[in-house]
Amino acid sequence: MPFRFGVIGAGGAAALHIPAMRTLHGVEVTAIADVDRGRAAVVAARHGIRNVHDSTESLLANTPVDALAVLSPHHLHLPAVRLAAERGVHVLVEKALAPTVEDAAAMIEV
């Protein structure tokens, strides 16, 4: 069974991360979510991603994933990390981790 990634954010970071994830043996990108569902659908079609969502909540509720790559703007990282942590889903978040030290500390805590 492959390790299943969900992606949050269909912008520029997704254009870099998704092709890289797809080269990894045993890894599958199974879902993508973006507030602009149309943009997420375009990225999904380009990369063969089956499940498209318009929110982190929808992705986590409707598509089984082992990890979430949070590629949205950094001020949106904390809510996505919290939702994933509540469901026991691993999280990949890169810099900038958060816009404030308090948000970064909250992500580390969860």
Protein described:
With 110 residues, the protein is an alpha/beta fold. It is 44% helix and 22% strand. The chain contains 5 helices and 5 strands; from the N terminus they run βαβαβαβαβα. It has a 5-stranded parallel β-sheet with strand order 3-2-1-4-5, with helices on both faces. Helix 1 links the parallel strand 1 and strand 2. Helix 4 packs parallel to helix 5. It starts with a strand and ends with a helix.
Summarize the helices and strands and which ones pair or pack.
Blueprint: E1 3-8, H1 12-22, E2 27-33, H2 37-47, E3 51-53, H3 56-62, E4 67-70, H4 77-86, E5 90-93, H5 101-109
Parallel strand pairs: 1-2, 1-4, 2-3, 4-5
Helix pairs in contact: 4-5
Salient structural properties:
5 strands; 22% strand
Summarize the structure.
The protein is an alpha/beta fold and 110 residues long.
Radius of gyration: 13 Å
Main sheet summary: 5 strands, parallel
Assign the structural class, choosing from mainly alpha, mainly beta, alpha/beta, alpha+beta, or little secondary structure.
alpha/beta
Estimate the global geometry from the Cα principal axes.
globular
Helix fraction by DSSP (H/I, runs of at least 4): 40-55%
